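Incident log, structure service

09:12 report received: a user says their structure output differs between two submissions of the same chain.
09:20 pulled the input from the user's history:
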Amino acid sequence: MIVVNLPWPPSQLNPNKRLHWSRKSRAARLYRNMCFVLAKSAIESSDYHYAGVGKMVLSIEFCPPDKRRRDDDNMLASFKSGRDGVADALGVDDNKFVTSFEVCSPVPDGAVIVTIQERAE
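09:34 re-ran on a clean worker, output below:
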């Protein structure tokens, strides 16, 4: 099992924002790269090795930066680039993930805590 603490997704990635595609693309690329680096570091410092068969359970805890109400589906959509970065770090396609998520209490600056483990067949 691996636990990765990732930063809260940038506001430009919220699906309700109506940004020019190039601004959104830049924000998505930067966030994906940041999540890749953090996930890769967590993977390398653990003894985890994915066997390459079967699915992986990706449990996501969204800890928002404040107490404002947020839609859980928008949080998941905002994290798409981060999820892709985690998949890149594992060297897999993200269709290998079985995802569950929950919204937790706010923390300063927000956080996304991702737990990765192989799915018991």
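09:41 both user submissions now match this output. Likely a transient worker issue. Closing.
09:42 reviewer note: The radius of gyration is 14 Å. The mean pLDDT is 91.
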